[in-house]
Each structure stands twice: as C-alpha cells, then as structure tokens.
C-alpha cells in the first residue's frame, strides 16, 4: 500500500470519524509533523532531541525512524548521530492517533453571512493544538458542514462547553477583536460548584499566575510582606442562581480573561467546580507528573495486544480492517484507536458559556442538563 502523507493543508472529511461507546474517534492517518530547530535544541543529535522532548515513544523508535527516513532534516535522510543546527527543518512522518472526544454534536445555533455561532461540546478543543487536529470544533465544522475558513472570536478551554462564535472572514474577526480590546463585549458562564454558595454578588479580585509546564493556574495575593504579587490582574464576579445544599449553580462574569480564571477563582473562594479534577483540591498532582506516569505505563504495555477499544459487546476482537485503517508496523499506538496513555474516563467540565453580548447584538446558548438542581 502506498502511504499518502497528510499535512495541515489536507481538510478533515466526514468519513474520518468513528463513533463508538459515546466517543468520537478519528481513524489513524499518516501525517507529516514539521518543526524547526530552536536555539536550545541546536547541538543535540536528532535521536537525543526527540527522545528527550517527545517522551511518548521509546528511544529505539526514534533510532528506527531515522534509519528508515521517517525523521528527516531539511528533507534529507540523516544518520542517528546527526547533530542539529539552529533553524533547520525537521519532518517527522508518523501514523497519527488522535485522542477521542465525547460524541456530542457541534450544534449550529445561528448561521449568518459573516458569523457562525455554535454550542461547543465539552472535551473538544476549539482549534488544532497538541494531539488534536481533526477532533476539534474547527475540524468537525469543516468536515460535517463545509464551513471554512473559520476565525474563532474567543476561546473556551477544551473541557468547557457552551457558546462559541466564529467570524467567517478576517475583516469580521478584526472587528470582533477591536470590540473585545475596547471592553465592549461581555461573556457569562454558569458553573456547578461544591457547597452552598453565598447569596448576593461576590467579587474575586486576585491575580492569576498560569504555569504552562504544569498546565494549571494559581491565585496570587499580597501576603503582607511587601513582596510583589506574581501573575496577571484578574477579576471575576459571581452570583448564585440555585442551590440544593450540596451543590450550587453559579453565574460567573469574568471581567478579565486569564487562563483557568473562573476555575481557580472558585477554588480560591472554597467553592470549586464539582467535577474539576485539576482544582477540586489544592493538592493536585502536576500535569507533568501525570504525563510521565502515563508515558511510563504506556511504554510497558504489550504492543502486540489489541486495545479494548477494538472489541465489540461479545468481547470478539475487531480487526483494524473493520474500521478501515491500516496497521502501521512502526506505530507505537497501533492497533489502538486512541493513543496509549490517554485517560478515556475523562469527562466534560461543569462549566458552560451561556451568553456573549456586544454593543448591538447578543448570542445565547441553552443551559446544559447538569445545571438543573432538584
């Protein structure tokens, strides 16, 4: 079989997806990852670089990838001890397995000449990032509805659901950007939190410091010692909508837009989002530690055994041919549909964007089922 290598220029298509057990999977596909040698990478051998920076695959995989030409420098085959130089182009040709997302549809709420408004399901990234390319809101809208290009007006965290607005052209996107910078656009969320949230408007005005390596934010406040407070200024207004004594539904109005701002401000108040594993307690294992644990576990798996994802209800192993994707002899994820180490029990966050308003317009999104307290 002749391998056809996809690049970011290849659009997602409807037949790329597989729906199984409440999840949306992407058929594994051949893809060319392109990167350029950063200053801190220069001087390292190509195998050492990849084994240190991309630990999801074992060292021997990268040795084999160089030998067979799946790792190339400036389009040319090199040897395993090749020393990289700054700005060189590295191509990594691999069999790409994207993590699954919840199978909920991306509901189109309003389709205008230059604006598309949708309800984003939880667990789906807005645009291509990291391991996700086709399993994104942008990818799904292009594959299933033919909408392209799309320019996200704002972003929602992958685990957050709710209102998402896209401009259909660069001019409209710039118009939205100017309104956001001028403070003319407001956004509201609802969250389901632990405990009985106090009545009346509650305001948290505390800096948020995001640690990209750990993938989480912390609240930074003055400790009275005169030490400067780290992080960026952040302010969120909260108001209780309902409570049953165990949980509360809270309206959240972010005045600023910092990473994980609502989530970490609610934790700071002592009312974390009820299913937020990252901020439910203050003592959460950092993401880097979790990732290393997953990688160690993944590397110890017997790669000759098919995943449970390829079994039907009678525990009969389903072949890759039934799913219409080829097993790649070099792939460290085959015959799984999902990449090894993926946390398949991950669910959507109980945080939902319900409203986005500008000077002359307003878009609203329906409440999710978890927002109803009995």
Automatic annotation (TrEMBL):
The lineage of its organism: Eukaryota, Viridiplantae, Streptophyta, Embryophyta, Tracheophyta. InterPro entries: PsdUridine_synth_cat_dom_sf (IPR020103), PsdUridine_synth_RluA-like_CS (IPR006224), PsdUridine_synth_RluC/D (IPR006225), PsdUridine_synth_RsuA/RluA (IPR006145), RluA_PseudoU_synthase (IPR050188). Residues 298-310 have a biased composition (Low complexity). GO terms for molecular function: pseudouridine synthase activity; RNA binding. Residues 290-312 are annotated as: Disordered. It holds the Pfam family PseudoU_synth_2. Residues 114-267 form the Pseudouridine synthase RsuA/RluA-like domain. This is Pseudouridine synthase. It catalyses: a uridine in RNA = a pseudouridine in RNA. It comes from Rhynchospora pubera. The keyword Iron does not apply. Keywords: Isomerase, RNA-binding. Its EC number is 5.4.99.-. CDD domains: PseudoU_synth_ScRIB2 (cd02557). It comes from the Eukaryota. The keyword Isomerase applies.
């Amino acid at each position: 079989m002749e391998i056809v290598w996809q690049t970011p220029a290849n659009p997602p298509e409807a037949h790329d997806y597989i729906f199984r057990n409440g999840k949306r999977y992407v058929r594994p596909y051949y893809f060319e990852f392109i990167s350029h040698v950063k200053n801190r990478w220069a001087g390292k051998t190509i195998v050492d670089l990849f084994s240190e920076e991309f630990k999801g695959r074992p060292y021997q995989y990268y040795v084999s990838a160089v030998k067979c030409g799946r790792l190339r420098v400036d389009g040319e085959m090199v040897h395993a001890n090749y020393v990289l130089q700054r700005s060189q182009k590295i191509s990594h040709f691999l069999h790409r397995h994207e993590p699954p997302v919840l199978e909920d549809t991306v509901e189109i709420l309003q389709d205008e000449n230059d604006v598309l408004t949708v309800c984003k399901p939880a667990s789906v990234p807005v645009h291509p990032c990291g391991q996700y390319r086709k399993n994104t809101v942008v990818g799904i809208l292009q594959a299933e509805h033919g909408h392209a290009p799309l320019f996200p007006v704002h972003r929602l965290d992958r685990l957050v659901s709710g209102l998402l607005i896209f401009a259909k052209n660069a001019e409209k996107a710039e118009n939205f950007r100017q309104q956001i910078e001028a403070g003319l656009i407001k956004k509201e969320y609802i969250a389901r939190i632990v405990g009985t949230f106090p009545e009346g408007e509650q305001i948290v005005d505390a800096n948020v410091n995001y640690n990209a390596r750990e993938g989480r934010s912390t609240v930074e406040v003055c400790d009275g010692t005169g030490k400067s407070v780290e992080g960026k200024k952040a302010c969120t207004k909260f108001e209780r909508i309902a409570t049953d004594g165990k949980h509360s539904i809270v309206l959240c109005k972010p005045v600023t837009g910092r990473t994980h701002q609502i989530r970490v401000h609610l934790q700071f108040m002592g009312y974390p989002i009820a299913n937020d594993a990252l901020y439910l307690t203050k003592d959460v294992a950092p993401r880097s530690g979790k990732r290393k644990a997953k990688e160690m576990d993944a590397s110890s798996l017997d790669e000759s055994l098919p995943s449970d994802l390829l079994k039907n209800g009678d525990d009969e192993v389903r072949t890759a041919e039934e799913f219409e994707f080829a097993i790649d002899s070099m792939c460290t994820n085959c015959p799984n549909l999902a990449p090894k180490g993926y946390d398949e029990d991950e669910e959507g966050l109980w945080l939902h964007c319900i409203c986005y308003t500008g000077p002359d317009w307003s878009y609203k999104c329906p409440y999710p089922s978890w927002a109803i307290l009995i």
